[in-house]
Amino acid sequence: QAYVSYSNIAALTHLAAKPGWEITSTLDDVIWTHEEGDVLSFKVEMKVKIPSNLAFSLLSDFKVRQQWDKHFLTCEVLQAVNEDENIYHITSPPMTGHKPRDFVILVSLRQPCKPSEPYIVAVKSVTLASMPPSPEYCRSEILCAGFQIYSVSHSSSVVCYFNQVTSGVMPYLAANLTGSSKSIEDTALECIKFLE
Fold first, then answer.
1. What is the DSSP annotation of 81-129?
2. Which of 19, 64, 66, 75 is deepest in the core (most CB within 10 A)?
3. For 11-40, how does the pLDDT look when each residue is reduced to its tens digit (9 = 90+)?
């Protein structure tokens, strides 16, 4: 179990440190993408006017995520692994012509050891015998996602959201990255509004 948690944090840290991120749009928030084979990753950088420890406590509580992320319909804690780890069952609203999707995810939290390090909220899909795929949902997988939160000052921080995307999440992003939809920007703006 400790290894799974470590690998969750390590995977997000590794993704964030990869060379070759390219900027795709610069509005109030900045979206970057990174392509490797058939895996597409994106990063959204958001500046918020609250301290990093407060941003961390708000973003690490997935039960309030529906308040700002419309991709989250329901969120239920399946297992509290320890104080820094929870396994959740998430459902997403259906897209036209598709069944609603669901996810079983492990969320691992890490606080910085020194001021230059970020707070980390790492997310990845896991399998849980007590929650097998259900016919009413399309079970989807999150390879690696989460937040890195850096302190800028006592009252401001930078929140970076990462998501490594498989074909399951593609329909939600395809329109976005071609510029015909603004759901990533909209979600980022909702996130900032929620945090501030």
1. EETTEEEEEEE-PPPTTSPPEEEEEEEEEE--SSTTSPEEEEEEE---T
2. 75
3. 999 999 999 898 876 665 588 888 887 788
